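Following up on my earlier message about zinc ion. Here are the inputs again, as you asked, copied directly from the submission form:
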Amino acid sequence: MMLYLWLAFVVIVGLMVGSFLNVCIARLPLEKSLIWPGSRCGTCQQPIRWYDNLPLLSYLWLQGRCRSCGSSFSIQYFLVELATGTAFGVLFYFEAVVNVHEWYEPSGASWHFGPLPWTWIAGFAYHAFLVSILIAASVADLNGREIPLPLTLTGTVIGIAGGVLMPWPWPWPVELASPRPGPGVPSGMEWLALEGGLREGIQPWPVWGPLPSWLAPGGNWQTGLITSLAGALVGSLVMRGIGAVFSAGLGKEALGLGDADLMMMVGAFFGWQIVVVAIFVSVIPAAVVGVIQLLVNRDHASPFGPSLAAGSLVTYFFWPWRPPGLHLLLFHWPFLLGLTVFAALFLFVAAVVIRSARPRETGG
Ligand SMILES: [Zn+2]
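Thanks, got it. Here's what our run produced:
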């Protein structure tokens, strides 16, 4: 019973957050204040009273219309609230109830009746924040082809703060997560001998393995800070690099800076390894959307932000099913260098192919 009360509570919080995200989506691109004035009808400028501003319910009750003048509001308000409430519920269910990350000891179902383990409250709140910003950024990108910098900047700061407060391998004890010299494992090779890969914390992986001596054995704020900063830096730089190479091949501007800022934020939360994999993963939804758009409407290039947001979350939540030796590749300089060169060449060739396949554009 308690479980369902908590779930209901989390979904209601999600709906209210969604309502606030709507305000952000509407006002941030116009550089208006988020707090003042309160919500108004865009047509008659009448303030919307609190009982007409309840998430989902008011929209249904008033059939998406203003009570004063009857002009209709966009269905987007309803959908963003619905999406955020659902996302909070799903996130809560998997992280807290199913305990997918094993953030707390699976000591039976006793917590349903007692105080909640604060480790997962922290982890859930941290991720709920990221998901909220990803929703707002995606909708803003779809609306106006622009991701507002205040969104991604706030997210990056929260991401780094979370990294400092919950450094890898938190909430695991460091002894459990860091590889130790064992029988038959030569000294210095412990990371290679890790079975099943690295243990994931709320900050999934440390910045490098083995950690340099001034960060070892992890679990300290320095590790968290460096890991988040490296993630933010790699997220931003890789996206800017892709944009530069692609633009060079295509002969025109491709990828906005908003996409780079979005992956900077994701990196601050998840670290650089997940960012790099997520960018590869994001190409799949982007390609599907791109092909559909080519068939339906040839003029418009689709925004990349929503694909990046989806790709990042998918990568993070499917991280436990990664190939077990992935950390050996991702902590190996020669492999990373080769991957970078290969990806750059591939992107450039792909852009040139796209350029030559397209009919010559007339005008802007
Ligand atoms: Zn009105």
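One observation from looking it over: The mean pLDDT is 87. Hope that helps, and feel free to reply on this thread.
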